[in-house]
């Protein structure tokens, strides 16, 4: 059986792996939600919002890779399958169909807000068991919060 | 209410939009499945398979954008949300956890096979109602079949 | 006298060359119309529309080169001179002077709509006489329809 | 009504805006003429002339953008529509159909000569009312004259 | 024994694989013929023809890769060995030794003409059994015909 | 003591150095003002204005380098320190705090207008004493006026 | 009124926002001081110091953007205007006029030393209220300290 | 005598400098060990392992530069000479001669494991005396652990 | 008749031209053989071998151009036609059909071995008559021997 | 006989062509002088001066091309042959042999000073007969004066 | 006095330094001759020859740098000043004024022929005293001979 | 047991492999010595020397890869481990601690001198047994001698 020499004791590993799996699911869903709105947004701000959403997609895709590979690095198998994402994401359901630019922006503010709240808890939870993982989560949080500001400012 | 001036009559549009929505779901799932295995593969061929899977991810992400934006172009709202993908993808369930390189390759052969079969049906279905959409689906099929070969050859 | 060894019989060539010459004129005019509005647009969406129009210009310029060189390839001299364009373009007249962003977007929706309708006829007309030409026209149509969606969405 | 805070008094503005509108029309036409010959040239020097013409097209397209945006900058709406170009260009009519490489070169010498003569008058006319506009026109003239030399040398 | 899950029934596969093998041989030979002339051309148009031939080489090399990998994709082993090419190419024999630029151009017109004629037959033959393969062959044909024009124009 | 061999006589040098020092201060301040608004802008046009302001920052930074190094070239020490800028800039005070997108655009129109007026005086003043310096100032003025147009058009 | 959903409680936010505003002012001033010396340095080490100073300018500009946007992200309006910088920067006054290379290096050692001391206090102050902000400040401090070493080594 | 103004008190500096010197030696040796195996590996996985080892070399070289320059930044002379490395590296001796791919991978797992254990101790040791140094060491640890996973997975 | 001013006397030229013609044929065949196996390889090392073979193709294509143009430079017409290659290559026949990765590697070891042996003879033969040609052949030999090692190591 | 249609009357052309021929000779010589010192400089500032001189070489080479092609553009044959340069350059003789860095810098200050003085006369002379040529000479002068400052500052 | 530790004994050094100084002069002159013709060529092959000459200029400039720096490396001061070049170049005088394309090509054949003959003597002369220098001269000769072929072929 | 088909007889191989192993050790050590000084240099020429040393590091790293892989190519296992380097390098010991720029340069002159002397012996030794290896060693020697000159010139 495949076992990675994890640098962390068992108890710490449990905390860290939950944080990473949770972050993975949120980030995969964030990438799907942002793409969904990217395709469905309409209204005078179409082009700006359409492009801004792809910036989020690119961020989310890079971050999901970082956290999934961090999990593998610690010997914990990451799970980013569609059903897992659908069942455990921290982002609320996005309605189907066309979405007005203003609502698109509002929807992203809410989605990012939900993810950021959970990410900050993960930053706190991983500080003692694994500062290496915490450092990755802090950098991701900083980036998500920047996107969060930009959508808020756009509806300011 | 937002209505796009679609160049297709209603009946044709229905056929085409079903083909595009189906293709979208398959391609989003393909990108998630390939990433899942990319993170979980182990074995002597780890590096080759790990990299080969990212080629599939890149293809799938480009193709999903193409079909979703084609749907929007025809005035049909695309749906690429996690739950929709989880419920309607043509790819069978992938087991969680580490996966041996040989099984990883086999799993990709099966997943691509499932998608290709459905894509070929969509190519046939769209020929008359919209050769423009058909042309996009043909190009996607050609690319998926090339990936399919490469994984088969790798287990040959 | 210069005669190209055309791979098509005379009757087929006539159909195909009319399609190509028509497409050429429409595409040259589309590039000029989009530039005209690019320079004259005003209003809060100025920057978005200004940039979006240059995407159309770039597309139109590439496509006009493709169709003109396809005509030459078949031994038919293409005609993209200003007077020919002014006289036979399928795009209606654009008013001179400053244009509000909303009207600019509407004007592009109409212009693209006019060209797309004619391109679809050309796709149908060339299918039997020359599938090679048809394939080029299909790809151009797909691209124009994508621009068409983006402007519609922007006024959605 | 949209009015730009022009840095120029009314009388000066009139002179400058005529120079810019004239330059715009000549440059749009130059780009169309060079493309027309690019597609229709034949003869042993085909490849050289074909490529050299695209250098002119690229120059003309950049310069037309410069002068049109300079007009907008001064609060004067530029007009680069096909009919306007067909009616007021300083370049004589180019015959339709295939053109021998030697004649193609000669035709470009004549076309550039016509535009350069008018550009030099515009340089002189704008010196006092607006040295900023003059500076742009001088740079464009230098570039056109360089193309002019290259075609003359090629028929030398 | 290695067997690819081909998406085509046996009879269709036979037609398609013959088309692909034939195209492969023609394209490999085209790349060798163009290089041969690239090295042996002399005369006042040396540099133009020398460079133009390398454009053909680059095209032919990309296309041969496309058709060979398409064959592999369908489970048919491609054969691009020197002897196979020498025996079954559709291009007539090229004489050894220096070749005047005018004759070099004429030789390429003939070689391309021979290949194009066979490619058009393959396009027709593959339409029903495999539109995916046909689409690749159409794109290759379009590119070869463009090269064909350019050499004809150069001797025009 | 360090003395540069200036190509200008003393009296001319005085005029030119005042023009350059004034331009330097205006351009440094323009870069700070544009960044300030870049960080504080809110409203539906957030993204467009945010990006457009960085175009101004980039222009201003390049131009400030040009004029400062031109001063050094003529043997005159340039002064671009914060206090100097705060005391002698030609741009009026910008209010602190968040700024609505429409006001942001208006504020840039005013700031650019103030700088352009002074730059045109410098262009006039340097014509006789140093055409080399004048040429640099003309190019900077052309660029600032283009930004000026774009912000006016955005509030048009 | 525009209010950002800040992830921090009020008291924490006050500490963090003071740290960010202080950092912003120091970094803007650092960029101006380094440019000032970049333009005024003389002596045998001119080229080395001239280039080394632009490395500092580039760093300072990137860091000022990071901290200002971090403030906006937390819902605090950043203030980087010239007068604010002139009044509250932690860098002592730089004398006007030419500066010998050795003094230029010494001046940068002092300026960087002043900023680094304050940055280390901000790193300490933000640790508890916002580790995300702290992480950004740590990275900036590391970079400034590296520049500090390089100037010290250059006068070593 | 050359003394850097270190931002750390003497006691803290001692701890930090030992951590940095230790990290430097480990990283230089890691780069040499990985190159040694890169040149000597044989077996069916030759190419994968050969390339994967160069990824480690590149990482190790970047990290060694970071820690050595951090030491210099704190006023501590770094020592990366061959004899120092040979005497104090934390990596066990690598046998000379050809090495089978499987053993090569195992050897890298062990080498990375040894370095990671020591890096984690350094992360802990530097937290209080210098969070800036700690932050650099955390990032290096994260990267080494990722390489560690990849080699473990490859023997999984 | 076209005669190049060759810098070599007749006898030397004969030796050198035979070396170059032989090298040309071997290198063209090497490029075809490597492509053939690139398309037909199967087995767990598929991806590694598939990519490694394209490195050989790229090398062989560059080298064949070098030697053919060296022949032309010396006034000797090079012959790289398919039939010439099929008849005079130093590489033994490669069997048609799918080839297991291990056999593919073995086949390349043999093919490279055959070419290298002949290249070393050419290096020896050209030393006295033309050190310039010899220098080119030495560089090609070094590169082929490096490929030779890599395939041997892969079957080690 | 080859005659270019010059846009200038004979008398003006004479003035302008003398200015251009003089500029050409000075610039060719400047490129040779800077290279000469680039190869012969020694002393502690070797690397800085060695690199700085190549910046001058690059500038001089670009400018010489500009003025020579401007002459051709006006129908005047430019003369940049070694003997012409040796006989009519405005730069004084440079001594052969190694040159200390300080003297190298001084030598460049003198050489640039000589060329700049002559360029300023040419700027004045061409203002009336050809503002297009004048504009090119002004830009070259600005660049040479910047190099002049940098060498003066380096000996300041 | 500056003395380089030359790796060569005095007698060998004398032979090698003469070869390098001779090569330097020839290559500087070749770059000037090729530029001279680049500016003065006329005729139907203008563009081809104009571009081909710049390839020679680029080669000559790189090679002159190589040989001059090789001389410096051996402790011998290189001399590439205009007068030295004018007096000792191996290339015969080029006539001033416009030159027909055919004569331009012939002139380059002669110039290259003259330089190549001397380079081959230098290759022979340096073999024993310094194989390192010889290797550089061989590579330069190979490149010049390739240019020589291309111009001969162009007049073939 | 792994045995490479070496193209050299046993006796020749022994000479060549000693030359390669010696070169490998010298080059690895050169890269470490240059990095050591890169980190420890101080003084007014800090930046120039710091950068110049990284040029040596880059060269040494490329060359060590070349010689190690050449050894592997000939079937001889290369040994570049730290202890081997520490024990058999031809470079004398470098003192630990800060080093003044002048001494740094002197130290590099000595180190390069030591390596070059040995490389020249290897060039001589390998000429007969393997001209391919000799050619690689000649190119490396040329590059090292160029670095040697640049450091001597910098202390000239």
Descriptive account of the structure:
The first copy, chain A, is mainly alpha-helical and 156 residues long. Chain A has one domain: Ferritin, core subunit, four-helix bundle (Ferritin). Chain A is 74% helix and 3% strand. Chain A contains 5 helices and 2 strands. A two-stranded parallel sheet of chain A has the order 1-2. Chain A is elongated. Chain A starts with 9 loop residues before the first helix and ends with a helix. The mean pLDDT of chain A is 96. Chains A, B, C, D, E, F, G, H, I, J, K, L: Belongs to the Dps family. Chains A, B, C, D, E, F, G, H, I, J, K, L: Pfam families: Ferritin. Chains A, B, C, D, E, F, G, H, I, J, K, L: One of its GO terms (molecular function) is oxidoreductase activity, acting on metal ions. Chains A, B, C, D, E, F, G, H, I, J, K, L: It comes from Streptomyces tsukubensis.
Write the layout of secondary structure elements.
12 copies of one chain form a homododecamer.
Chain A: H1 10-40, E1 41-42, H2 46-73, H3 82-88, E2 99-100, H4 101-126, H5 131-154
Parallel strand pairs in A: 1-2
Q: Short summary of the structure?
A:
Chains A, B, C, D, E, F, G, H, I, J, K, L: GO terms for molecular function: ferric iron binding; oxidoreductase activity, acting on metal ions. Chains A, B, C, D, E, F, G, H, I, J, K, L: Residues 18-153 form the Ferritin/DPS domain. 12 copies of one chain form a homododecamer. Chain A is mainly alpha-helical and 156 residues long.
